Amino acid sequence: MAAKAEAGPAGTAAVEAYLANAREEHRPALHALRATIAAAAPDALEGISYGIPGFKYRGKGLAWYADFTAHCSFFPGGTARNYRAELEGFHLGKGTIQFTPDHPIPADLVTRIVRDRMAQIDGGGSAKARR
After folding, report:
1. Which CATH number fits the domain that encloses residue 71?
2. Domain for residue 72, yes or no?
3. What is the pLDDT of residues 17-39, one digit of tens each?
4. What is the count of structural domains for the chain?
5. Residue span of the structural domain in which 73 resides
6. Which residues make Cβ contacts (< 8 Å) with residue 92, sequence separation at least 6?
7. Closest Cα partner for 105 from 117, 90, 84, 93?
8. In this structure, is residue 122 part of a structural domain?
9. Which pTM was predicted?
10. Under the phi-then-psi rule, with left for phi > 0, alpha for psi from -120 to 50, and beta for the rest, what region is 125?
């Protein structure tokens, strides 16, 4: 997350404001994604960075998510590439997974992706690459 992004209580308030302004039909999916990331990374701090909600882990960007006109996006960085086969049916970018409220990313997969990203930050490299 950018250095000027607020984390902690102020960051949480900014995230809640962002979600309150998200498209009504996208809000439940974004809230669910937020909760899944938070559960997978309980020590991460949330806030707004790059104009979208995200989480910072050990001072580094962990994952972000956002509301767009026709979809929602989950931004776990390059870690998403490690799960290409499991993400079949989702539109993937270099570090982005697009989804819709009627076709969300499975929570268990989000958890594994977030934990893989945490392992990368911890210096352990990609959990998928170690398998």
Report:
1. 3.90.1150.200
2. yes
3. 999 999 999 999 999 999 999 99
4. 1
5. 9-130
6. 80, 81, 84, 98
7. 90
8. yes
9. 0.87
10. left
Q: For residue 60, what are the contacts with CB-CB under 8 A and spacing of at least 6? A: 121
For residue 73, being part of any structural domain is answered with yes
DSSP the chain: --TTS-BTHHHHHHHHHHHHTS-TTTHHHHHHHHHHHHHH-TT-EEEEETTEEEEEETTEEEEEEEE-SS-EEEE-GGGGGGGTGGGTTSEE-SS-EEEBTTBPPPHHHHHHHHHHHHHHHTT---HHHH-
Residue 3 lies inside a defined structural domain of this protein: no
pLDDT at 88 over 90: yes
53 touches 34 (CB < 8 A)? yes
- Joined together, the tokens standing for residue 86 give 């499991």
